[in-house]
Automatic annotation (TrEMBL):
Domain Tryptophan synthase beta chain-like PALP: 7-282
Record gene name: cysM
Pathway(s) per entry: Amino-acid biosynthesis; L-cysteine biosynthesis; L-cysteine from L-serine: step 2/2
EC number assigned by the record: 2.5.1.47
UniProt catalytic activity: O-acetyl-L-serine + hydrogen sulfide = L-cysteine + acetate
Superkingdom to which the source organism belongs: Bacteria
Record-level Gene Ontology MF annotations: cysteine synthase activity
Entry protein name: Cysteine synthase
UniProt xrefs under InterPro entries: Cys_synth, Cys_Synth/Cystath_Beta-Synth, CysM, P-phosphate_BS, TrpB-like_PALP, TrpB-like_PALP_sf
Family of the protein in this entry: Belongs to the cysteine synthase/cystathionine beta-synthase family.
Amino acid sequence: MQYPTIESTVGNTPLVQLKRISAGSNTLLAKLEGNNPAGSVKDRPALSMLTHAEARGEISPGDTLIEATSGNTGIALAMAAAIRGYRMKLIMPANASSERKQAMAAYGAELIEVSREEGMEGARDLAEQMIARGEGRPLNQFANHDNPLAHYETTGPELWRQTGGEITHFISSMGTTGTIMGTSRYLKAQNPAVQIIGLQPEDGASIPGIRRWPEAYRPSIFEQSRVDRVVDIGQQEAEEHMRRLAREEGIFAGVSSGGALAGALRLAETLDNAVIVFIVCDRGDRYLSTGLYAPEQS
């Protein structure tokens, strides 16, 4: 008998309709990426980057891999490296939640931190320096086309199938932009009228998983033509809607997912009878130490 492996559980995540949060005449659907084995949408590109690089002969089990990450990609890569037999060095800002750091370490990854002030830009710079010194092989999610390819091959087809081709709007937070790039490419190929909405943080907002990149650091996989509209999301708005997802829908998720809900509701105010899908990027348990879900004080 052929039994499934942990790799085979990546993808095919549920798409569920919100019941208590109203979007008027519109249908509001959440894609639950926290159901992936390492808990986020990044499981898809992590496995894709490793398996495609292996197939091209660029890496082989036993190699050391290096990647800059703010959290979810690092956890997913640490899992994928454990599955396939790689050493993983992850560079990340020191202000990432303790749950994220512990999850990476649990999978056997080595963590290297840069300061909060250096942020993801500093993490990316250090990763490049380490690779130049020959300390490991790069994956570079920001320029690696196997990142959006994962979503072209899996997320897009799943959404088309799960909605019976009725999806009219797709909303995704933008970090590396792999999710929105690959999903947009697939959905637009099925129906060019599907609208693709990307989310970025307002100036001054710090929302894990959503970035407003300086021009010099903009991911090279990003193609502006694949996004119909970009919406700015505020810090408080994202956090409030994150808590709404848990308390009103039973969906325990992170801050970027709250931002996606906020963007979806804002969009729904301008539409009638639309089928709006938004990505719930990860699970809320990796944010508990931040206090975002702490009981309200009376």
